[in-house]
Design a protein that fits this description.
Layout lengths: L3 H20 E2 L7 E2 L5 E4 L2 E4 L5 H10 L2 E2 L2 H17 L1 H7 L4 E2 L16 E6 L10 E5 L4 H4 L7 E9 L2 E5 L4 E3 L1 H10 L11 E2 L7 E6 L2
Parallel strand pairs: 1-5
Antiparallel strand pairs: 2-5, 3-4, 4-6, 7-13, 8-9, 8-12, 9-10, 10-11
Helix pairs in contact: 1-3, 2-3, 3-4
Length: about 220
């Protein structure tokens, strides 16, 4: 039986996804900013909370305002929103000294300011994935070689359902199966066969890399 905290986490993950569907859009070029809230400024490829507001206020302002984000920052925002909802305002503010949503170059790490809220773990199969788990689906390993500057080398997605197993990602704005995500990515690289794509990001031992919100 699910614990109350787990049930709450599943509910707020879906709520965060619905807010992202309404308020987030994918930008050309790849920059991130919040166009309404003065709580954020753009810096490089990320967002930083700089106003005199708490991380709790900042994450809610971000989710409820229009923002241009890429897939990684969208999923990070949803994950942090869910952690905030489960832990409550006081605990969430104590977990983060500031709210910084930034890019990482390695999926085995998380943005430094979110380490207290999100952990990196490994699972041996998709059957061990939980609602709220964040994974990365990769296109063909040579995608950027044949499509230099392309934006479909992969997609950050978050699990929203276990039966059926569905994942939300900003690139398509919908919840899809892993196979459906591979087909969408393949449309951006039709010279490759779907069977040649990398698929879910794994480590050298074949375990699935998962970023999991701390609940």
């Amino acid at each position: 039986m699910l614990t109350t905290k787990t049930q709450l986490h599943q509910e707020v993950i879906k709520r965060g996804v619905n807010l992202a569907k309404l308020n987030f859009s994918y930008p050309p070029p790849r920059v991130a900013y919040n166009s309404k809230s003065r709580a954020f400024v753009s810096y490089g490829l990320g967002i930083k909370n700089v106003a005199e507001v708490t991380p709790w206020v900042a994450i809610h302002e971000l989710l409820y305002n229009r923002a241009n984000l890429d897939c990684e920052r969208t999923i990070l925002a949803i994950a942090l929103y869910a952690v905030a909802q489960v832990h409550g305002e006081q605990d969430f503010n104590s977990m983060l000294s500031e709210l910084r949503i930034s890019s990482t170059l390695n999926f085995s790490t998380v943005p430094y300011s979110a380490k207290s809220c999100i952990t990196v773990t490994k699972v041996s199969s998709v059957n061990q994935i939980q609602v709220g788990d964040w994974i990365y689906i990769e296109n063909h390993k040579d995608y950027l070689k044949y499509y230099p500057g392309g934006t479909a080398s992969g997609e950050h997605v978050i699990c929203t359902s276990l039966s059926p197993l569905l994942f939300y990602g900003l690139f398509d704005l919908n919840e899809r199966t892993i196979d459906q995500w591979l087909l969408i990515l393949n449309m951006a690289a039709p010279i490759f066969e779907v069977s040649e794509m990398e698929g879910i990001k794994k480590d050298l031992n074949g375990d699935i890399m998962v970023r999991r919100p701390c609940i």
